Amino acid sequence: MKLHDCQMAPNPRRARIFLAEKGIDCEKVEHDILSGETNAGDYLKINPWGTVPALELDDGSVIREAPAIMRYVESQHPEPNLMGKDPLEAAEIEAWERFSEQNGIGAIGEFFRNQTEALEGRGLPGPTSLDLIPGLVERGKRRAAWFYEELDRRLGESEYLGSDRYTAADITAQCAVDFGNAIGMGIPEGCKNVARWHAAVSARPSAGS
After folding, report:
1. pLDDT, tens digit, 9 for 90 and up, residues 176-200
2. Taking the CB of residue 163, how many other CB atoms lie within 10 A of it?
3. Which of 69, 140, 144, 206 is the most exposed place for a label (fewest CB within 10 A)?
4. Closest CA to 171 of 22, 5, 8, 3
5. Contact (Cβ atoms closer than 8 angstroms) between residue 13 and residue 206
6. What topology is assigned to 2-76 in CATH?
7. Which of 135, 145, 153 lies closest to 108 in space, CA to CA?
């Protein structure tokens, strides 16, 4: 297998952490998002959507998007279980994983992308030309504030997000929080439950992936 990656971006890191938790080592191919490499012809032959991560299998098949990669890898390597041991647990993990993608990574990405000159004309990931929208910077901040509030509430009830153990939901939230830390939108001072959880997930060996 070959993982098409970008070290600075949160979504490929979701896949890297998931693979590390499964004990899977595979070749990683770095692509520079800021320079536009993922929107260039060579990469678009691999993934016409122009996004990372993409997992290229040995037979040439390509699986796009972090949640799809996680689902495929879980099906091939079911232990340790990261996506639910029964339908109800799987649903709760998926709900928090999706929430963390949309309102964590999505909101923080909205804040970052719409004020980053290197991404001019690339208001959203992918090859389609879209203007940056300065008004989305403030909206991203407000969405991220709600994301942290909801995480703090949930983590006051449970040690982890989607279950009583570390799962895919924690991986996505972990990548969102670390992305926020990297661009000046770290854990708010009052979110003590998030800070406790973040220290725990950051101590896992996979966090260095």
Report:
1. 999 999 999 999 999 999 999 999 9
2. 22
3. 206
4. 22
5. no
6. Glutaredoxin (3.40.30)
7. 145
